[in-house]
Amino acid sequence: MKEEILLVANWKMYGTKKEGIKLISAIKAGLKNLSTEGLTIVLCPPFTFLEKAKELIEGTRLKLGAQNCHFLPCGAYTGEISPLMLVDYCQYVIIGHSERRRYFFETDQLVSEKIKAALEAGLRPIVCVGEKQKKHKKEKEEEVLNQVKAAVAYLDNKKMAQLIFAYEPVWAIGTGNEADPSYANRMSQLIKESLPVNVPVLYGGSVEPDNVGGFFKQEMIDGVLIGGASLQASYFLKIIQKARRYVSQP
Ligand code: PGA
To answer: For labeling, which of 36, 161, 199, 215 is most exposed (least CB within 10 Å)?
Structure first.
C-alpha cells in the first residue's frame, strides 16, 4: 500500500479545444463516482488548452501541467513558451520527454537548464529519463543514471527534492510493449539511490488499465505517466480506479 500515487496524463500534440473540453468533461463526470483520496492527478494538455483546462478543472482535485518549457523566463525566442508564463496556468511541467530529446534534439545539458528555470519560476518538473534501446544491463543503467545526474547538476538538495522523475524506457513508449514491472522497479530504485534526497519516480511507457496494477504493486514506483491511454476518458478513469486500490485508506 502506498500513501500517495501520482498519475500524470501526457496528451502530447493531441486535443483541439473541442476535443479537450469533451475529454475533461468526461473525466470530471467519471470522477463524481470515484474517490481520488491519496491520488495526485495531473493533466498535461497542449499549451493552447491550458487556460480552458484551468477553468474546467476548477473545484476538482485535478491538477495541470505543461509538456515543455524554455530555459529562460523571457527573451527573443520566437515560438517558445517560458516557465514564467506557465505559472499562471499550471503547477507542473514535463521536461526532457524522449520525444523532445529525439525530435527536437534536446540534450542533457538543455534539459538541466530547463529544470533549473522551471524550479525558479515555481513549477514542479516531471523529468523524463530512460534508455533508448533494450541493451546490456550495465550500459542502460549508465545511460539512465547519466541523464539523472545531468538533470540535477544545478540543484541543491532542497530544489532537488521538488523533482518528480519518470522512468520511461524509450522502447516502451507508444509501442504497446510495456516494461516488465519488476525491471521498472529496479530502475526506479537505482534512480532513487543515485540521489541524496528522496524523490518520487513514476513509470511510463504503454501503460494501460490492464497492465497498470503490475506497476502500482512495485515498492519503488510512485505512480505512472500515461500517454495514449490518457486520451480516452474510460481508460484513464479505469487507471484511476485501479490506483485507488493501492493507496492506503485515510
Ligand atoms: P504511452 O506514452 O503511454 O503512449 O506509451 C507515454 C509517454 O510518452 O509518456
So the answer is: 161
Q: DSSP states of 129-162 as a string?
A: E--SS---HHHHHHHHHHHHHHHTTT--HHHHTT
Range of the domain at 149: 5-244
Q: Over 90: is that where the pLDDT of 163 sits? A: yes
Catalytic residue among 70, 97, 131, 178: 97
225 Cβ inside 6 Å of ligand 1: yes
Separation between Cα atoms, residue 181 and residue 178, nearest integer Å: 8
Kindly state the average pLDDT of the residues 43-61: 97
Compute, in angstroms, the gap from residue 17 CA to the centroid of ligand 1: 21
Does some domain include residue 55? Answer: yes
- Determine, yes or no, domain membership for 63: yes
pLDDT band at 40 (very low <50, low <70, confident <90, very high): very high
Q: Rounded to two decimals, what is the model's pTM?
A: 0.97
Is the pLDDT score of 120 beyond 80? yes
Q: Annotated catalytic, 70? A: no
Rounded distance between C-alpha atoms, residue 210 and residue 133, angstroms: 24
pLDDT at 140 over 90: no
